[in-house]
Amino acid sequence: MQRIVITLVSLLFLFSCQKEISLEAGKPSSGALQDNGGDCLPKLIGGTFEANKTLTDSNYIDVTVAVSLAGTYRIYSDTVNGYYFSGAGSFSVPGTNTIRLRGTGKPLSEGNDLFTIYYDSSFCSIQVPVVPAGTLPSTGDHFILTDNSWWSYASPVQGDTLKRTIVGTVNDNGFTYKILKEKNTTNVYDDSLYVRKSGNNYYELNYSDYYSSFYFDTPVLDSLLFLKEGLVTGDAWTSREYTGTVGGVDTKLKYLFNVINANATVTYNGRTYTNVYQVSMKSQKSENGAAYADDVTWINYYAPGVGWIYQKYDDGTQAFELPIRYFQVF
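Request: output the structure for the sequence above.
Response:
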């Protein structure tokens, strides 16, 4: 098990932000779909959008709104490919709010539909994937641990591929972990991950600082809870606190996990995955008793019946992604 941080990655939504004349009337609230820097605030797609299938309450977009003046609101999209999104109500106080826009209509064909979302005098765009008619939601575990199963990923280096294969087991502290061997782009096994499942929880045996930007002077080995079955959007948990020194400086480390979306639909290498868990893992660091500060953010996607399909690394200065190419599950 190498103590090397693998810089990898992913983004599902592409946003663009602009301004236009408000279509609202009466005494609406005021605000924007962007932050003060003009960047679109986060959005989240819920449900599986299938061609020729009428949308239900499980098909929606959650949008984040920066409200400057309380009042009524109407937030809506244009109509694309036979369907649209909308929501109305009122904001009681200024601040940041998340509003659910329900989908209405029926996607006419598969593909990626680009919608524009309007609120007050601002608008932002979001891309919604539509799967082919007859596509069924995936079922099964979100992390596969069967022997000989493998997954290959497009590395940040163009044309290169990383492959992960389940090759056996290892025992530690009374627990049995499956070995996930990583074969690099030169076709040589150069790293291993160790994972076990207990009930609905998945644990990885690794150095506690493996997913941070630093190394403790004395390595601390632990079993990190990184994934659960039965997740819902918004679920969150925190790792235990790890302590040690880094270059002689007293240092503490912990990981924050957050479920960005527990029912996402994504497409990689021409294949559409449904019911995908999108989970962020953020390392935080404290030195000499100071408050914790964000360190590195990892975003991982897990598809039921397939497993780990995407990974993104972002340390604030550089970001890399690792999307799936091919796989075989036994």
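Residues 4-25 have pLDDT under 50 and may be disordered.
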